[in-house]
UniProtKB/TrEMBL annotation:
Chain ranges of the Major facilitator superfamily (MFS) profile domain: 55-233
Keywords: Membrane, Transmembrane, Transmembrane helix, Transport
The organism's place on the tree of life at top rank: Eukaryota
Name of this chain's protein: Pantothenate transporter liz1
Amino acid sequence: MPDRTSEEAAPLLPPSSSPRVSKHSDFEMASRIKKALWGPPSVERSLLIKLDFTVLIYFSVVWFLFGVNRASYNTAYISGMKEDLNFQGKDFNYMHTIYLVTYAVFQIPSTSLLTIVKPRYVFVAANTVWSVLTLVTFRATHVYQVFVLNGFEGAFSAIAYVGAHFIYGSWYKQSELATRAAVFCAFGNLGNMAGGWIQAGLLASLSDGPIEPWRLIFIVVSCITIPFAVFGV
């Protein structure tokens, strides 16, 4: 017969000192992060990860660059554009108002276009056009030219936000949307914040060149946004 006395006398290891628990404790945080982003292991996890590393990242980076792009107008205004283009009174407010009006008006038709034309072509075309319009702004010689360019830029960038969420809703489940939408919006806020820092660095390093500093801002920002917009193909 087995000796039960020795079994009863054997000290019990507390759960925290168990070798098996200690082995898995190092991966506990990583597992929680994976579960929060991609849920429990399943056949759909690989698809969800692919979506995050393609669809989510592409739209998030575009929205980040969009924030940098819009911040460039504010930086350019206080860096010489106001004087060179003869902004008067509320012209700066009018510039942003024209942009916002066309941005709001074209949100519905641009999203409807996604049901007719392949989204990859719509997004690449729209993102490329508004990036090129930003580049063209560096050639402006009058405030009214900036008004017109901002109006067209608002029309072509209208799809940036609503179109991204339309695609998210087409691929992600309802339980997965909140996290992705939060990441997307966070990138936009980072773009607005980082845009000023990037452009301040440009002004400090390129202010002595033959081209006015505010014009250089639009050139450099466009050189960043145009290649990434085309990358969506």
